[in-house]
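Regression report. Comparing outputs from two consecutive submissions.

Submission 1:
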Amino acid sequence: MKLFSALVLAPLFLAHLAMAQIMYVGTYTEGTSKGIYAYRFDAATGKLASMGLMAETPDPTFLALHPSGKYLYAVNELNTFQGKKTGGVTAYSIDRATGKLTQLNQVSSGGPGPCHLIVDATGKTLMVANYAGGSFASFPIGADGKLGEAASFIQETGSSVDKSRQSEPHAHSVNLPKNNKFMLGADLGTDKIMIFRLDAAHGKITPSDPPSASVKPGSGPRHMVIAPDQKHVYVLSEMGSSVTTFEYNPDTAAMKELDMVSALPAGFKGQSSGAEIAIANNGNFVYASNRGNDSIAVFRVDKKTGKLTLIQNQSTLGKQPRAFALDPTGNYLIAGNQQTNTMATFKVDRNTGMLSPTGDKYDLGAPVTFVFLK
C-alpha cells in the first residue's frame, strides 16, 4: 500500500516542483537590504517562499537574465564605482539548485547612475542605460558569462521643456524587438525614444535611421514594452504618468505615434509618476505602475488599432511601486513597494485583465525589480 501511494504521489510531487521556480529581486541597499534576494515562486498558488540573500552588492536595482539561464547581470546604480564617476554592472553565475549567485566580474557601466539593462537573444551582448550620465553602452558577453569592456558608448545630447528635470539627457531603459536587430532606448531628458542598430556578434550598437521617435514634450519617457506581434510599442512616461502608443515597423524600427492615455484614475489631483510597464503574453492587456497614486493601471488593448483604454487602477497595498512583474504564466502579478518595504501579489483575470489581491504580502527592504529563472 505504501509503495502504491508513493508511486501515485511521486508524479504529483514532481509536477508541483515543476510549477515552482526562482524569482530574483533587485533592491536599493541604503536601508535594510544588502543586495539580490531570491524567492521560490509557486505558479500554482502564486505564493512566495524566501530563499534569502543570494548576492551582497550595492544598489542592484535592475536585473537581467542570460537566455541560457546560467548567468544573471545587475546594474550597480551608483554615481561612483571603483573610484570613478560611473556606475557598475556585475555578472554572476547561477547555481540552479540553490539559487546562489557567484560573482564572475564587474565592469564600469560607462556613466553614472546605471538604471536598466538587457541581454540580447543570442546572449552575446548586454546593453545598459545610464540615467545620471545620459548615455547608453553595450558590452560583449564571453562564453563564460563574463563581461568585456564596453564595445559601444553613446553619449546623448539635448534637453526638453522642463528645465528642472530635462536640462540634459537621462537614459532610462533599453529594450529589444524579437528580431534582435535593433535596440530602443528611452531618454527622459530629451523626450525621445532613441533607435539603435544592434550588432550582437560584436556587442555593438550604432544610431539607426530614423535615429529616434518623440513623445509629448515634458512627458519624460521611462520604460516601454513591445507588443508580442511586434506591431506596436507602448511607452510609459514618468513625468506625465501616461502611456503613448506607437505603430512600430520591425524592419526599420520606425515609430509613428497613434495615441496617448493617462495611467491615473479620473479626478486624481495628487502628485504621481509612472514607473514600470508590462504587457500580457497574449498582448490583450498592458499594465503600468503609478508612484504617488500607488496603483497598477490596467489597460485593454484594441487588437485592431493597438490603442489602449484604462479599465482599472488597483492599489499596490503600499507606497512607491517602482517596479512589478507578471509571472511567466501570466496568472499573477508581483508588485514591489519601495517606500514601505513590501511586496504584494495579485491574481490576474486572463479574460478581463483585471487584478485582485491574493492577500499575500512579503517584507523586503526597498524592492525594485523581479526576474524569473525559467
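Submission 2:
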Amino acid sequence: MAGGCSLDIDLACTTIEQRIAQPLGLSVDEAAAGIVTLVEEQLLQAVQKISAERGHDPRRFVLIAAGGAGPMHGASIGRKLGSPMVYVPRLAGAFCALGMLNAPIKHEYSRVVFGELGSDTDTHLRPILERLARHATSQLGRDGFAADAVEVIYELELRHPGQIGAIRIPIARSGPLSSEVIAEAFRAAHKRFYGYIDPKAAIEIAALFVVGIGRLPRFHLSRFPVKSATPKPIGERSVYFGQVRARIPTQIYRGTDLTSGAELRGPAVIEETTTSVVVAPGDICRVDVLGNYIITFAEGNARS
C-alpha cells in the first residue's frame, strides 16, 4: 500500500494465472516469482554494466536501493552483486524528487577541438576555456547565484588515435595547462576503464567542456537518538520467497514504528508510505541514526 492506493490481489492473481501460469504449467506463486526474477536480472545487469564501464567493482560498494520499487528488489540484487550490505533511504519512494530539489544547477558549454595533446595545448585552449567560463558565470548570475556560490570546472575529452570512445578528464582551471599532468590523468582513467595503457601512444583532444555549477545551500539530515528496542510487528502474512521457493510466515512492520536502533531479522516486510522494504529470511535490517534502513545478509545468503 502506498499513498492510500493498494493492489487488487485477486485481480492480479487472476491475470497472472490466465496469462502466464496456465500457459507455462506453473503455479501462480511460481509465475509471479519468475516475473520478479526477470525484473531483478535486468536490474542486476544494468548495475553491472554501469559499474564495469566506470571501472568499479560493485563488491567494494554498498548498494543504495531507492525508488518506489527499489527496496523490494534491493537486497536480492545486492546479494547477487556481492555487495557487503544494502542501504535503503526512509524516503526511497521520493528520493528522485528530494535529489532534484537539492541538486546544484549546472550549465555545460562545449566546443569540438581537434588536435594532439602537447606543449602548445595551453596557448591553444586557454582563450576558448576562458570565453566559455564567462558564459557559464554570466548565466549563473542571471539564475540568481552569488559569486561565492559559483564553481567552474574545465574538462578535456581525450582519446588515442583511432579510438571511437573518448574519456573526459578534469583539468586545472588556474595556472598553465600541463600536457604531462593531463596525459598522466588520462592514462590512469584509461587503465581504470579499459584495463591497459599505452604510454607511447599519442593522445588526441576531441572536445573541451566548461561546466558552471551553482551551489545551493546544503541541507542537513536530522539525526535521531538511538534506542535499543525490539520492534513489534503489526501482523503476519504468508509471503513467497524465491530463495526457499515456498510461502513462509512473514512479520509485517509499519515503518513509522521503527526508530533509530531498531533491529529485526527476516523474513519481514516493512511498509512505508511510498515503498515496501523486503528483508529475506535470515537477513538483518537495522535502523541507523538518520532513520534509514541497513540490510546485511545472513551468512550463506550471500550471492545466492
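Expected: both submissions complete independently.
Actual: both completed, but the second showed a warning that disappeared on reload.
Relevant detail on submission 2: The longest strand covers residues 105-116.
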